[in-house]
Amino acid sequence: MRKKFFIYGFLLFLIVAAIYYYTERGFLLVIILPILLIVGIYNAIQKKHAILRNFPVLGYFRYLFEMIAPEIQQYFIERSTDGKPFSRNQRSLVYQRAKNIDSNSPFGTQLNLNHDSYEGIRHSIFPAKVNEELPRVLVGGKDCKQPYSASLFNVSAMSFGSLSENAVRAINIGAKKGNFYQNTGEGGLTEYHLAGGGDITWQIGTGYFGCRDAEGNFSPEKFSEKANLPNVKMIEIKLSQGAKPGHGGVLPAAKNTEQIAKIRGVVPHTMILSPPGHHAFSDAKGLIHFIKQLRDLSNGKPIGFKLCIGNTAEFEAICQEMIAEDIYPDFITVDGAEGGTGAAPLEFADGVGMPFEPALIFVNKTLVRLGIREKMRIIGSGKIISGYSILHAVALGADMCNSARGFMFSLGCIQALRCHNNECPTGVATQNKMLMKGLVVTDKSDRVYHFHKNTLHSANELLAAAGKNSFADVDINIFMRGDEFANLSDMYFPDNLKNVTQFS
Question: How far apart are CA 244 and CA 118, in angstroms?
Answer without folding.
Answer: 28
